[in-house]
Write a structure and sequence with these properties.
This protein is of the alpha/beta class. It has three domains: about 200 residues, 3-Layer(bba) Sandwich (FAD/NAD(P)-binding domain), CATH 3.50.50.60; about 110 residues, 3-Layer(bba) Sandwich (FAD/NAD(P)-binding domain); about 100 residues, FAD/NAD-linked reductase, C-terminal dimerisation domain (Enolase-like, domain 1), CATH 3.30.390. Strands 1, 2, 3, 4, 5, 6 and 17 form a seven-stranded mixed β-sheet that branches. Strand 5 and strand 6 form a beta hairpin. Helix 3 packs antiparallel against helix 4. The longest helix has 25 residues.
């Protein structure tokens, strides 16, 4: 008789979700965590970054208001204190949930060398099912070696109690754009270096272009198509950059390296328990979160792309469902939210991708055509819907106020396969940002309203 029905290695959002769901479905569960419950997302990434970005944006917008007077400044230490309070409160909530469902939390580093057993703190615990939710870690790349002082990964940089004046961000993806938004709103001189031809590589080009425009309007220097490397990291950091127009030296007080992560599987002899990994070291899983060993599941970053908490939570729930006897599969559509100067929400295909599969069209609604955007004082941005010949929404791309919330509503329609001619019957409340969806549906089926 094993000690536990389920042992979860890793107490991040993926592991937490798998543990709670398994327990809810009647399983005896233990979760092994060497650091803090909540993992990267709660303690170092998603929650801290959004707390900091929202606070900094609030002060920045107040300072630019046409109807507010007086001076506005940021007490960054106070913002950091608020961030820490938010994290502590949420982490305490997770602990209460684990206790409520009888999940045993074992503090320590897990190791696995044979099937059915996990070693922690010199003791062996046995299981029927194992969930690997050990996450990912930053890679110190040869051209951008992290030094723990002034060349940092994003999560270490966000934990600094004070920031220098000149910050260089390597990578213009999700993390790079969010950090550029934060640091510039705090009055810092910010430079972003991106190797690819656009910010947010892989995203809709118009979304990427408007993101670049907004950052540059706020004073962020953006280098695209630029190969770079650190050539000096003493008191200041010096980059050698090959831009489309030639060689250039870029200097800063702090470098934040947002590129390069790898799956963390330290201490786990995956081969010994019949669990395979791909060429990049991520654990192979199917749509039910099962690995190549049917008794072992994996969820979150360790299970491969996308490396996002959004995917991690769902994959943890899917693993817990299946362990508990409730048939469950990963959704087809997983939205992405970016908390930049203008929020971004994306799910599914671009028009170019959809056209490769057949007939498709694109419906665009400008935020300046949505009444609520005017009352909020933010009319820049748009929503694009990509619709196939059957009226099914294949993709949605929004940049603008409230985009991170609006995208979730569209994801419901996409995942459930509701065509636009059925959505046409639905009425949204007025005036709201989400009316942008209704306007896009109206235009797809008949014609414009606003």
């Amino acid at each position: 008789m094993p000690d536990f029905d389920v042992v979860v290695i890793g107490g991040g959002v993926a592991g937490f979700a798998a543990a709670v769901r398994s327990a809810e479905l009647g399983k005896g569960v233990a979760i092994v965590e060497k650091d803090l419950i909540g993992g990267e997302c709660l303690n170092r990434a998603c929650i801290p970054s959004k707390t900091l970005v929202d606070a900094a944006k609030l002060v920045f917008r107040a300072s630019k208001s046409t109807f507010m007077t007086g001076s506005f400044s940021v007490n960054y230490t106070a913002i950091q204190d608020q961030k820490d309070k938010v994290i502590s409160s949420l982490r305490a909530g997770l602990a209460r949930t684990l206790e409520k469902h009888g999940v045993k939390v074992i503090r320590g580093t897990a190791s696995v060398s044979r099937e059915g057993e996990v070693s922690v703190n010199g003791q062996t615990i046995t299981y029927s099912h194992l969930v690997i939710a050990t996450g990912s870690v930053p890679i110190s790349l040869p051209d951008f070696p992290l030094n723990g002082r002034n060349v940092l990964d994003p999560w270490t940089a966000m934990d600094l109690r004070s920031l220098p004046d000149n910050i260089v961000i390597v990578g213009g993806g999700v993390a790079g754009v969010e950090l550029a938004t934060l640091f510039r709103a705090l009055g810092k001189n910010v430079t972003v270096i991106e190797l690819m031809p656009q910010l947010l590589p892989g995203f809709d080009k118009d979304v990427a272009e408007l993101t670049k425009k907004r950052l540059e309007e706020r004073g962020v220097r953006v280098y695209l198509n630029t190969k770079s490397k650190i050539v000096k990291a003493d008191e200041r950091i010096e980059f050698e950059a090959q831009t489309p127009s030639g060689s250039e030296r870029i200097v800063g007080d702090l470098a934040v390296i947002t590129i390069g992560r790898k799956a963390f599987t330290g201490g786990l002899d995956l081969k010994a328990i019949g669990v395979e990994t791909d060429q990049r070291g991520y654990v192979k899983v199917d749509e039910t979160a099962r690995t190549t060993n049917p008794k072992v599941y994996a969820a979150g970053d360790v299970a491969g792309m996308p490396l996002s908490a959004t995917k991690a939570v769902k994959q943890g729930l899917v693993a817990g469902d299946n362990i508990g006897g409730k048939a469950s599969r990963m959704p087809k559509y997983i939205p992405t939210s970016i908390f930049a100067d203008l929020e971004i929400g994306v799910v599914g295909q671009t028009l170019e991708q959809a056209l490769k599969e057949g007939e498709a069209k694109e419906i665009v609604v400008r935020m300046s055509e949505v009444p609520r955007a005017w009352t909020l004082g933010e009319t820049e941005g748009f929503l694009k819907l990509v619709i196939d010949s059957k009226g099914l929404i294949k993709g949605a791309h929004m940049i603008g106020e409230g985009a991170t919330e609006v995208i979730n509503a569209i994801t419901i329609a996409m995942e459930t396969g509701i065509p636009v001619f059925e959505l046409y019957r639905i009425q949204f409340s007025h005036p709201t940002v989400s009316e942008v969806i209704e306007e896009a549906i109206q235009r797809a089926v008949v014609g414009e309203v606003f």
